[in-house]
TrEMBL record:
Pfam families (UniProt xref): DUF6169 (PF19666)
Protein name: DUF6169 family protein
The species this protein was found in: Runella salmonicolor
InterPro entries: DUF6169
Length: 164
């Protein structure tokens, strides 16, 4: 299936596209060097992946599989720089975090990202008040720092998930 055309705004690290149903999305890769307590070669290449619907018409919107292919094309563009690392946090503030995680995991499998040279590492985080969420790191399989990347995520989870 064909992706929608999209625009890239390099100074802001984001992409924009509009669907045939007049829904506009912004896909942002927010610099997030502070997320992993890691050496600069890793930390300086960490970006939080934010998928935001920024405009939609009134009423129900039919399912649109081209959105999935567009996000995949945007990811391919982002990962042209092989050192880039994307972190996707499944926000659960509205109780829909598990659904977001299932959808994101399904996209990764459906689009065969692993077979196309990507790794996805998942980790869960738990707040003292019982709130929890998951995060996924995605990076190119041939990233020479992959062991250090995985270790940095595991160490972050160990520190974060300690009894409070």
């Amino acid at each position: 299936m064909e992706a929608y055309s999209f625009e890239f705004f390099p100074e802001e690290h984001f992409y924009l596209f509009k669907t045939r149903y007049e829904v506009r999305y912004a896909i942002r890769f927010k610099p997030s060097f502070y997320v992993l307590d890691a050496e600069p070669a890793i930390a300086d290449n960490v970006y939080e992946l934010v998928i935001a619907r920024i405009e939609k018409p009134e009423g129900p919107i039919p399912p649109d599989e081209r959105i999935l292919y567009t996000i995949a094309a945007i990811a391919e563009d982002f990962f042209k720089k092989e050192q880039n690392i994307a972190i996707y946090v499944c926000d659960d503030s509205d109780g829909r975090g598990k659904a977001r995680k299932r959808k994101f995991d399904g996209w990764f499998v459906y689009l065969n990202f692993e077979g196309r040279g990507y790794m996805k590492i998942d980790q869960g985080f738990h707040e003292a008040d019982g709130f929890s969420y998951s995060a996924s790191l995605i990076f190119k399989s041939e990233n020479r720092l992959k062991i250090q990347i995985i270790t940095a995520l595991d160490e972050l989870a160990d520190r974060y998930n300690q009894p409070k």
